[in-house]
Amino acid sequence: MAGAVLTVEPMAALDTRTDRRPSFVGLLWGSTVGKKTAMAVSGIVMLLYLVVHMLGNLKIFFGAADFDAYAAWLRTIGEPFLHHEWFLWIARVVLVAAVVTHAVAAFQLSRRDIAARPVKYAHKRRRASYATRTMRWGGVILGLFIVWHILDLTTLTVNPHAAAGHPYANVVATFSTWYGDVIYIAAMLALGLHIRHGFWSAAQTLGAGSAARDRVLRTTADALALLLTAGFVSVPVAVMTGLVS
Amino acid sequence: MTASTPHTASTAYTDYATGAPVVDTKAPQGPIAERWDTRRFEAKLVNPANRRKQTVIVVGTGLAGGAAGATLAEQGYRVVQFCYQDSPRRAHSIAAQGGINAAKNYRNDGDSVHRLFYDTVKGGDFRARESNVHRLAQVSVEIIDQCVAQGVPFAREYGGLLDTRSFGGVQVSRTFYARGQTGQQLLLGAYQALSRQIAAGNVEMHPRTEMLDLIVVDGRARGIVARDLVTGRIGTYFADAVVLASGGYGNVFYLSTNAMNSNATAVWRAHRRGAYFANPCFTQIHPTCIPRTGEHQSKLTLMSESLRNDGRIWVPKAKGDARAPRDIPEDERDYYLERIYPSFGNLVPRDIASRAAKNVCDEGRGVGPGGQGVYLDFADAIARMGRKAVEAKYGNLFDMYARITDEDPYEVPMRIYPAVHYTMGGLWVDYDLQTTVPGLFAIGEANFSDHGANRLGASALMQGLADGYFVLPSTINDYLARNPHKDEVGGDHPEAVAAVRETEERLARLLAVDGDRTPDSFHREIGELMWEYCGMARTDAGLRKALARIPEIREEFWRRIKVPGTGEEFNQSLEKANRIVDYLELAELMCLDALHRAESCGGHFREESQTADGEAARRDEAFSYAAAWEFTGTGEAPALHKEDLVFEYVHPTQRSYA
Amino acid sequence: MKLTLRVWRQKNAGAEGAMSTYEVDGIAKDMSFLEMLDTLNESLILSGEDPVAFDHDCREGICGACSLVINGEAHGPERTTTCQLHMRSFSDGDTIDIEPWRASAFPVVKDLVVDRSAFDRIIESGGYITAPTGSAPEAHATAVPKPAADFAFEHAECIGCGACVAACPNGSAMLFTSAKVNHLNVLPQGAPERGSRVLDMVGQMDSEGFGGCTLAGECATACPKGIPLFSITRMNREFVRAARKRG
């Protein structure tokens, strides 16, 4: 059964006692530990982005003019050194790379993990924390959410208002639909859980954890999860309650 | 040849013949400190280019076997190695707790190679060969260097240097240790060195494969018969020399501190093929083990004897006193060791402490289930040092005790009882560790060398590693150089065919009896008999009783044994039954050896030979020799060959601890 | 005590297996779990049935041979090895499920016996210090700071039982591998092979078909020797360091 996994995703033993080793990237991508490192790094890139994104979102509480101006400003960052929207596109490329790296590594590792434990125990028993056990499905949910989110507020393909250059109105339009609220809030709760285990886990993968530092890391993970979820969810809640309209 | 078939012996087993004495031990002459160098220089060497063509079989992967396999492979030999466990890392050396002795004199407390040599000869009650013991003491210092280089995490002081402690009543601090898991750490070091050679293709490792016979061709050991324990396939393996590192035979007693599957089959089969068995009656009984709780008991667990430094041993004065220990007033307790041995008290040597415990239990004053136990009380120590200090010193042992017995030793006294722990006897070997079968070597606990009639604490690990890392790899060269690889022996050789057939017949017969008793029931029966008559105290009458009984048990075994399943599968009952076949023969030799040695020495106590105050009385004028027994047939009287022991450097004295 | 046992029975590696139910009576609280199984086996032999095969040897908690999943937990409810688990942890009338270690890298040999040779191959790939016999310098030539020695010991305590793999939802061998990497990498004697050791051992671990680590932490909870989860963290750091230097 192990063989079957290996044909799908070759992870041959690194040659023992050899002076010729693959490149740094090759070593990383060629092993489970390295792939986890790639996931940790890409995860942290996305996490940093999310913090900025969440803070930006809060501008909605300052009104349509502020919010729309902020959105327009995003397109001018780096000018005149960078051309109009170049910064945005660079950020998008980096983010797509991070998402793809994260997802492909997760997919490949998950396949391995499932194949490594083909027979379940007859005696069932609850294992690990909820956040840990929901990493895979949570990741899938977030992946689907990103697709919808881009179609909704970037390309405006599925947005009920779909007015280019008027993000405030578009956001309010989305959160004025029941399904918009449900999708968004559900995804943000999944995000919170994902970050809660993911941040701590990434710290371990990158070798930053230790018994002495564990409390700090776990508290930071919980705080990040809570703040990001609360920050993001505050927008649809504000629209629903009429605080933002 | 009828392997292990019951039959009536033509001569009584006790009518053994005395054959020619063993003279050539290959130990060089000259000053004792130079003998090892002399021997190494005299030994012929094998050209490195030719070593690849020479194959050595090593049976066992404990400290001796693991170290030997790794070292021989490093030297360039082709090694084929076997262990019955699923991994070489599980050999029972792993369970040794206390430590390993070495004459490093890091403490500047007057230790030296000569003192370690002296202590070992004296501790062995003058029944070991001086030349071997001296070499052991010399090599001890190299062992520590080797193990540190391998990454063995010995205990260290804050300055980063190695810590040592004094152990087993010696007056110098020469015992190196890794918490209470020294054996584990040393074994993993050897296992890792062996693993490196397996990866390099120099060692062909066969785990879950048990040696069942020795193949001797033209008087030389040329291979073994072994059974793959997973498939049941019986295979033959050939080599230029065979090394047995299969451990001791304490499991003859059923209950011992040995691992459940430790067994005597490799050494006993070698004995049947011509290797002399030396001093089989020399067994060590350790005083501080956790007593058995009932009939179901499958093995015994040892606790470090360091506990005797602070615990006080006692039993009630009255027979059958069933009160809880704390309800027995001070003046109704008998601190018998302190009473009988006022100067040494609870710290008397292992054999004396064990025997005294047996005596009070025989008087009906034992405590716990079946009256087979004595109290080891820490109440005074806790009052004197405080609970914290006791916890720091013995916490892990107390935890272990509490886990097994469900009693809190801080509140109620521990119960302890002696248990079989180590066998000093084993295959007779010369200075080169070669048995009387040319090309067959025995190392570690499997041989009889070095410990005489009693082994000192922390010396088993030292001997296993000395043999495996340093002694055998030097001496085996000489044999291989003088007997260059020439004629190929294969599975079709008549001797190999015969050995395989005998093995197959024996297993088939075990399966065919289809009786009404389990292998364990026989093992328990022979074990109880041996414990009763060939245990801590032995008598002429008792040993004769055992010698009369053993053939009866053997006969009954072959009539009533029940082994389910087949031989062509993973069959643990068959493995067990086959090992018992050999115990039923070895037990007889142990009793005979104990009977013939009408003296007390070390772990061998004959009630007829004691001083006025009940201490062991050695009889050097009659028994200053190692008894090497030659096999002549199942149940047939064996032949005794004596190796006279000459003491040039350590002069025999009678031990006294009163 | 009277107990109902549901035991995984499987004739050999190729055969189908299933849980079989047995009743045992007269079990004493002081028996070890394995002695309870001995009792079952004695009665099975006498009734002409095949006794239950299970690995065991030292029965002192140090050889690492015993390997049972008891009621869904590797080595059962106490934090110890199966051989040191006693029947007083159970109650009269209990039903106990006994299964082998489950992982594709640990195929079942028979009943409750599995093949753990993958662990040996991980050690063979680099879990040693190259120090051929006779080449060692004087033991005190290199002082090892006590904290490093203690750290090494803490990780060297691993008994190679495989409970970490059995407990891990991914069948990962990270805790086992990291214990050895950390034991040797922290010591000055292990420094020259520090990089190649971790790269080679992780490579071998992967090629054996063990799953990856998702830091669920089940391994460290099950470990009878208390190897900490941070052992894995530390190996990850060693790995990235070695990958950067390429060995």
Automatic annotation (TrEMBL), chain B:
Keyword Plastid: no
EC number(s) stated in the UniProt entry for this protein: 1.3.5.1
Domain FAD-dependent oxidoreductase 2 FAD-binding as annotated: residue spans: 56-461
GO biological process: anaerobic respiration
Active site residues of this protein: 350
Family: Belongs to the FAD-dependent oxidoreductase 2 family. FRD/SDH subfamily.
Residues in Fumarate reductase/succinate dehydrogenase flavoprotein-like C-terminal domain copies: 523-657
Coiled coil: none
Catalysed reaction equations from the record: a quinone + succinate = fumarate + a quinol
Record protein name field: succinate dehydrogenase
Protein localization: Cell membrane
Automatic annotation (TrEMBL), chain C:
InterPro entries recorded: 2Fe-2S_ferredoxin-like_sf, 2Fe-2S_ferredoxin-type, 2Fe2S_fd_BS, 4Fe4S_Fe-S-bd, 4Fe4S_Fe_S_CS, Beta-grasp_dom_sf, Helical_ferredxn, SDH/FRD_Iron-Sulfur
Cofactor requirements of the protein: [3Fe-4S] cluster; [2Fe-2S] cluster
Pfam families to which the protein is assigned, alphabetical: Fer2_3, Fer4_7
Keyword annotations from UniProtKB, A to Z: Iron, Iron-sulfur, Metal-binding
GO molecular function: 2 iron, 2 sulfur cluster binding; electron transfer activity; metal ion binding
Domain called 2Fe-2S ferredoxin-type: residue spans: 1-102
Residues of the 4Fe-4S ferredoxin-type domain: 149-179
Gene Ontology biological-process entries: aerobic respiration; respiratory electron transport chain
SUPFAM superfamilies documented for this protein: 2Fe-2S ferredoxin-like, alpha-helical ferredoxin
Keyword Coiled coil attached: no
Family to which this protein belongs: Belongs to the succinate dehydrogenase/fumarate reductase iron-sulfur protein family.
PANTHER family hit by this protein: SUCCINATE DEHYDROGENASE, SUCCINATE DEHYDROGENASE IRON-SULFUR PROTEIN
This protein's name: Succinate dehydrogenase
Organism: Streptomyces chattanoogensis
